[in-house]
Amino acid sequence: MTAIPLQPPRRLVEFTLDGQETRVPEGTTILDACRAAGKDIPTLCQGDTLTPKNACRVCVVEVEGARVLAPACSRRAEPDMVVRTDTERARHSRKIVLELLASSTDLSTTPRAAEWIKEYEAKPERFGPDAARLGEQPRIDNDLYVRDYDKCILCYKCVDACGEQWQNTFAIAVAGRGFDARISVEQDAPLTDSACVYCGNCIEVCPTGALSFKSEFDMRAAGTWDEESQTETTTVCAYCGVGCNLTLHVQDNEIVKVTSPHDNPVTHGNLCIKGRFGYQHVQQR
Amino acid sequence: MSGQVERPGIYELPFGARLRDLLELAGPPAGLRAVLLGGAAGGFVRPDELDIPLTFEGTRAAGATLGSGVVLVLDDTVELPAVLIRIAEFFRDESCGQCVPCRVGTVRQEEALHRVKDRTGAAAAGDIALLREVGGAMRDASICGLGQTAWNAVESAIDRLGVFE
Fold this sequence. Notes:
The complex is a heterodimer.
Chain A: E1 12-17, E2 20-25, H1 30-36, E3 60-63, E4 70-71, E5 82-84, H2 88-104, H3 113-119, E6 145-147, H4 157-162, E7 172-175, E8 182-185, H5 201-205, E9 211-213, H6 214-222, E10 231-236, E11 245-251, E12 254-259, H7 273-277
Parallel strand pairs in A: 1-5
Antiparallel strand pairs in A: 1-2, 3-4, 3-5, 6-9, 7-8, 10-11, 11-12
Chain B: E1 2-3, H1 19-26, E2 32-37, E3 43-45, H2 56-61, E4 71-75, H3 80-94, H4 100-116, H5 122-141, H6 145-148, H7 152-159
Parallel strand pairs in B: 1-4
Antiparallel strand pairs in B: 2-3, 2-4
């Protein structure tokens, strides 16, 4: 039996997307409608397994009659709405958002960041050499994963994955305000003194590589991380009877990282500590 | 009513009173330079614009706002760039940090104002263009009204008062 979640039938909403009459099921976001139409809108805080906080604002589009731009990831299509995704105004805000992020945050491991910066002709260096940066050092306080908050864009995805949207562990939250806001465990303690259960579901959703396996972090530091040469093999976790899917990322015959397919109808990319990190026995030779 | 007036305080006037009437009640300064209408998220108006009616429609028609209802009066002894830096500092401080345009934009705005505070004309043009671009994105792409209005006062000081000319 194939597990396809059945949903009640939804009405279709008709609206105009970049001049094209478009019909989507009621409740569809503008972003989903764009993707269905083959449009490539940049996103950072949006994830396929989470409801976004629309915090990054890199997906903004212009909705006719609205005073401000709308985040495509969160705004749902409404009847007769007129949406333009590629106006000068929308492109300007995306460019500035990319500049603000790249001038304050280390985006070196953010997939597609370099491509978008080029596409939108963003010039983060124009804020000058004295522009404030996060200035965070990697936090290496356990053997499983590293929190490198110099790469954090505060997308809230790890907080939501740890808390109410998936894990219900609530080990992390945003602490502080404004530019000083950071993701933190209670009392800013080391992870080992926190409520963290090391499920690694925060790493699964992190869009910038701020959260990474210790193995990946060490290999990147040593210059041996080579994603091109890695293979990905999806298998079934051997620990319990749930049967979660594991995708083993293997480089030079060693498991270097474990992820889980986001389209799995049961686990949606989530794992527990055993599936995520308990693979050492496979490599005992 | 605050700033350089003889009698700062709380004034209650019927809608439709003009800015001039309020100033007369509070005792205007000798050399009036600017009035910040609507608080930190509001905008500056010039001494030749005191006929603006203090209504939602009247201020809107003049490209200003009643905002919080605060009227801050500045005379010509005030260093306007320093006032703008104070306003930018306020927004940087008040930003909750949820969205990028406001969280980082308010920091970049304050940095640029520090750079241009003693400059005018061509020497300020680059940073003013930068302020305009960042301000536009804050206004268009921030989640809430704080980020959306964080550049109002600075913009009006540049465009209406000509502060860096």
